TrEMBL record:
Residues 45-65 are annotated as: Disordered. Residues 434-590 form the Helicase C-terminal domain. GO terms for molecular function: ATP binding; catalytic activity, acting on DNA; helicase activity; hydrolase activity. Residues 51-65 have a biased composition (Basic and acidic residues). Residues 235-414 form the Helicase ATP-binding domain. This is DEAD/DEAH box helicase. InterPro entries: DEAD/DEAH_box_helicase_dom, Hel308_SKI2-like, Helicase_ATP-bd, Helicase_C-like, P-loop_NTPase. It holds the Pfam family Helicase_C. Keywords: ATP-binding, Coiled coil, Helicase, Hydrolase, Nucleotide-binding. SMART domains: DEXDc, HELICc. Residues 156-183 form a coiled coil.
Length: 688
């Protein structure tokens, strides 16, 4: 025998097909493996063959070598997975050499044992696999193998980490594999609970408000006291004309803050109320709401617009008491010199749009231009004292900084009336719909203590997907997106409100305006178009789960397809994004400018303010490189001094970036068909 093995620590024996695999260790490291065969003799079981294993080859040795190794070892361990007959034979053989004191039966990982590794485990340190227990390393490898075998593909990144973490937590491989097969085990899917929180605010009685009788009577008929965020706004000067940034969770009543002061000022002859939102669909919804709620008191008009679409003035009355509009719709009116009259109140809903890469600069510019327009009018009309500004958002990561930048008073209310449970599970695109069906049915079959059935909002990333999912749900459901006409959307809203629908399936782009009393929110996708959701957007959407007057708790399910992207420009996969959103800190709301954005907003400011363009740039939230932008405008022949050229006026009126404008000009010079021009712009944008 080699001197290298004169002393060993452990001999491990594991039965394999009637023979025994023997592992010899010293200092926790394997020295070699061997194969042992026993034969029955008159003295009992004895070693018959002993072969050292080296890969697939075996080197015969004298059977007595095993006995010598056993005598020199400190301990001898027999795998618990060895059959009772096999254990009996080994123990009897070792007792024949008076080695029984060294022998102990231990639980080991069967995969390790089969591979010639000694891996003792306990039920506290191992993972259950069928009726057996295996070590954590083997469990991770087996999980990956089974997922790949079942069609899940190679799972990596954040999804793999999460699944392994869950497996070690529950110590059951099968439960984890079943999770990816659509089985909803709440102990595994639950990520965390956002606890209900309460903030003590003395409620303001509606009969103490001293508003114009029209809005005063309306409020008193509806409720005796204001909600906390509304009370805080009133106590901090809302009705005295103070500009305010109101930051509060979804369904806490912040919209009424803007409505209350705006309509009061309208009825008291202090100017028009502008209520501005980011999307046409939201403007349509708010316009209809104002018509229903306040149409008997005030005239309501709507102003929407989008780049590359001609302004036809449809339904827009600049002399209306309330003008509901999109950011671009009102900005278009300013860029084209429309007379806006006396503006008494400006309510900017979803003000966190300021941080969005593609649209934030336009809202930033609009606020600057609209403030300038109001100030110029106030300078010309002694009886007009300007506008009150109310900014609304459910999610802001830097409220104090944003409040200072907007020169407003911060009204922040952090109460969450009911808790929200957040769950994460994994599925591919087709499996997601089956999981959603289970979740929707389970929720709709549950009734809250307030007597309401559970209903679901499913957020996805395309209108087509909205229809696909709603068709495949067993219980009555409906798509809901900006492409539906007014009548169909109102029908969906009514049916959901009357609990005739178990679910609505809507796009993430419409998330801000979805106002359904749902108990459950499901994320079918974490993308908005070809962009991943931001932490703000994610929290805004999940905040739709649960209403205090309807439900006992809110439930959120994030359905994740591992290692998936929805566009090749996406740098992260969906599972990585999921945990970034779930764990992420709220991003700061501030506008950032690249060259194209700086040129676009500076051109708009020249168009609206002339020589005041630099002052308009300076008052914007983002840091606009004015000198560079003006140089580019002169180079592009978009301005002549402090006036837009005819080309510049067309560019700014249609919200074109310089690259888009030059694409159009080049096509026009080549006598291209209008359809070709549109296609060229869309292809150019897709390549950016």
């Amino acid at each position: 025998m080699s001197k290298q093995v004169q002393q060993v620590d452990t001999i491990f024996c594991h039965e394999t097909g009637g023979d025994y695999l023997v592992v010899i260790e010293r200092g926790g490291k394997r020295l070699f493996r061997a194969k042992l065969e026993l034969s029955e003799t008159s003295a009992g079981p004895r070693p018959a063959k002993f072969r050292l294993k080296d890969g697939s080859s075996e080197e015969p040795r004298q059977p007595d070598e095993f006995v010598e190794l056993a005598r020199r070892s400190k301990r001898i361990r027999i795998s618990e997975q060895t059959s009772s007959a096999g254990r009996r034979d080994l123990q009897e053989m070792l007792a024949g050499y008076q080695l029984e004191d060294k022998v102990k039966t231990v639980r080991t990982c069967r995969y390790c044992a089969g591979a010639g590794r000694y891996s003792p485990i306990t039920t506290e340190t191992a993972v259950k696999d069928d009726n057996d227990w295996i070590c954590t390393d083997c469990a991770k490898r087996e999980l990956e193998r089974q997922l790949s075998f079942s069609g899940g593909g190679a799972v990596s990144g954040a999804a793999k980490e999460r699944l392994e973490e869950l497996m070690l937590e529950v110590q059951d491989l099968e439960r984890i594999v079943n999770l990816l097969k659509g089985q909803l085990d709440p102990d595994l899917t639950k990520f965390d609970t956002i606890s209900a929180t309460t903030e003590e605010v003395d409620p303001v009685r509606t009969d103490s408000l001293n508003l114009h009788p029209g809005i005063q009577d309306l409020l008193e008929d509806r409720f005796d006291t204001l909600l906390p965020v509304q009370s805080l706004a009133v106590e901090n000067g809302l009705l005295d004309g103070e500009d305010q940034l109101v930051v509060s969770a979804t369904a806490t009543g912040k919209t009424l803050v803007g409505e209350m002061t705006g309509i009061d000022r309208v009825l008291n002859g202090k100017g028009t109320m502008l209520f501005l939102v980011p999307l046409v669909a939201l403007a349509n919804q708010k316009y209809e709401d104002f018509q229903d709620e306040y149409g008997h008191l005030v005239d309501v008009s709507i102003r929407v617009g989008a780049s590359r679409i001609a302004d036809n003035g449809n339904q827009f009355d600049p002399n209306a008491d309330i003008i509901v509009g999109t950011y671009e719709g009102i900005d278009h009116a300013l860029r084209t010199g429309k007379e806006m009259g006396d503006i008494g109140t400006v309510v900017i809903d979803e003000v966190h749009t300021l941080k969005e890469e593609d649209r934030g600069h336009r809202l930033d510019g609009l606020i600057s231009r609209l403030k300038y327009t109001c100030e110029q009018r106030a300078a010309r009309r002694e009886e007009y004292d300007g506008a009150q500004w109310v900014y609304l958002s459910a999610t802001v990561g830097n409220p104090e900084q944003l409040t200072n930048a907007l020169e407003a008073t911060l009204i922040e209310f952090e109460e969450r009336p009911i808790p929200i449970e957040r769950h994460v599970t994994f599925a591919d695109g087709q499996e997601k719909v089956r999981v959603e069906n289970k979740l929707v049915k389970r929720e709709f079959d549950t009734e809250s203590s307030k007597g309401y059935r559970g209903q679901t909002i499913i957020f996805t990333n395309s209108r087509r997907r909205c229809h696909e999912i709603s068709r495949k749900l067993d219980y009555s459901a409906a798509p809901y997106h900006a492409g539906l006409d007014y009548k169909r959307r109102k029908t969906v809203e009514r049916k959901f409100g009357e609990q005739e629908l178990s679910a609505v399936v809507t796009t993430a782009a419409l998330a801000a305006g979805v106002d359904f009393p749902a108990s459950q929110v499901i994320f079918d996708s974490l993308a908005m178009g070809i962009e991943w959701l931001s932490v703000q957007e994610f929290h805004q959407m999940l905040g739709r789960a649960g209403r205090p007057d309807y439900h006992d708790t809110g439930t959120v399910y994030v359905l994740v397809e591992p290692d998936t992207v929805y566009h090749n420009s996406m740098e992260m996969s969906e599972d990585e994004v999921a945990f970034k959103l779930l764990k992420g800190e709220m991003e700061s709301v501030m506008t950032h400018y690249d060259e194209a954005a700086a040129v676009e907003e500076t051109l708009a400011n020249v168009t609206v303010g002339g020589k005041a363009a630099k002052a308009l740039n300076d008052r914007m939230l983002g840091d606009v490189p004015t000198k560079h932008a003006v140089g580019k405008l002169l180079q592009y022949d978009f301005i002549d001094g402090f006036e837009p050229t005819p080309l510049g006026r067309v560019v700014t009126e249609h919200f074109l970036e310089p690259g888009q404008a030059f694409t159009l000009l080049d096509g026009i010079r080549k006598d291209a068909h209008p359809y070709e021009l549109v296609a060229d712009i869309e292809l150019r944008d897709a390549d950016l």
